[in-house]
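[Solved] Which block belongs to which protein?

Original post:
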Amino acid sequence: MPISDLRRHNHFKGLKVINFRFTDKVLENEVEEAFLYIHIQELERQNITITDDHFHINYQVNRITRNSQGSKASVPYSDSSSKLSGKELQDGTWVRANVTNMVAEFFRLPRETLGIVVRVQDSKNRINLVVPHPSSESNNAVMPYIELTLRDNSHKRTRRMIGMDCTENSKEVRCCRYPLSVNFEEFGWDWIIAPKQYDANYCSGECPYSFLQKYPHTHLVHLVAPQGSGGPCCAPRRMSSISMLYFDHDLNIIYGTIPGMVVESCGCS
């Protein structure tokens, strides 16, 4: 689940434009889902008394593009709302907007960056809210980001050719790859921002003689059976990485690629 990278900014009608940059490798995939996460916080109140315990916050995401005359134009893609408490607004909180259509269109016809503006206000336009911006003076821990779920059909076809895939209801006894979803929140790992869960998969099954012939080295080791050898076992043959967004000890947001997190194929070794 890749997270987009952020670069420079400019302005559109008084609003700062947030520019997202995607790598060529990411752009090769299809977009299944895309969510924009923004951290909003009360900047100041107008000179009126507010007694509400909760506030309805509206936020609109517009894409900045060029019209037929070559001038900048703003195209709305997402209108969302959230009910937040006064404490959440004072301390700051994360909200998200579904921007799947916007990002999918950008992937089909990509440019250098995807530029957006975000308009945020309460339902009665009484509270001045701030959305942190990826500029030099911003707090990196609350920088806006886009979380993507991608679809790679060619990768899936290759994966089926490499090893056997099974389900929990399968009666297959030979070594096979089974689905397994890991939820970080169930472990109490709240320092991981995204993904909250992912498909890790695991290997299980027997390694009979006929199956070992697919792997000559393992087959020979099984026949020789040296001292201390526990025999062949079903284990991952190929692993892949995932991209993660998480907080470090100083509460800075870190984006990194963690290797060996997903079992892509299983075999006997």
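(Second protein starts here: sequence line, then its structure tokens.)
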Amino acid sequence: MDLLLLNYSSWVGSKFLLFPSKLTPLPSKLRRRRQKLASGKMEVTGTDSEGRQFKNPEEMWREHTGDHTKKTQWYRDGVSYWQDVEASVDGVLGGYGQVNDVDVKGSEAFLQSLFSELFVDGGIGRHLVALDCGSGIGRVTKNLLIRYFNEVDLLEPVSHFLDAARNSLVNENPMASDTHKATNFFCTPLQEFMPEAGRYDVIWVQWCIGHLTDDDFVSFFKRAKIGLKPGGFFVLKENIAQSGFVLDNEDHSITRSDLYFKELFSRCGLHLYKSKEQKGMPKELFAVKIYALVTEMPQKLIKTRSKTQGNRPGIIR
């Protein structure tokens, strides 16, 4: 699932969607800005698509996924919501196919900076392998990852999206390079996926993590760590709520705030190496942020930060 969200500034009586709407002409991963925040509420409060307030995420998750039956239904509904969405760039981006180029350019600049900072010699001479989580129709793989990695595996629970990705990357491209190719296509949800140990230099997670409960978010990243090579890292690109969280009752997904994400990163045992807001998106969209996450902070960065701290002038009391 390749996800981008719209977010209108007021409730207008229509559905507040994380995933494509079956009832609108723009089935969309672009969520309209409809977040309603009560003044004076703490950061952890949230709202849902019907305007209901939750005092914290635990209250919301307890209601929607508090037992095995509810949790199973949560994930089933999240995947089934995509079944009527056209397997095309314009389809998965809800009629906003024009943001594809902006998104890819922003991601590419971020990835290039990570290559130069985290890989010896920028990764030149290495056989690089990536995992594209929530790959959808292979949009990110085709336009970005396959140009930088020798192999890309795609992970996507919606079968007709994955079929379209395979057709685009393999079947319709018989002259594809043997040195830069899509290798494996896993039709598996994030919460069930177990990667091959030590296979990936980069695990890319874009516009799909909103389907996972907090517990499954943490367990996914803890499992996925096993799939990283030494020195490998995660890239997470997601929509950001202004504060707390926003729940979509229709498609069973959640948009989290930056602080909410950082709390989960800590629970995963991951370190935030760097982050950047995506620029150039239409004004009506939620903010989009991209994070680089590492299992251990690079020593050169630790030393630099320590030295910077040590050189700060003392405070005269």
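Accepted answer:
You had them paired correctly. Confirming on the second one: The chain has nine helices and eleven strands.
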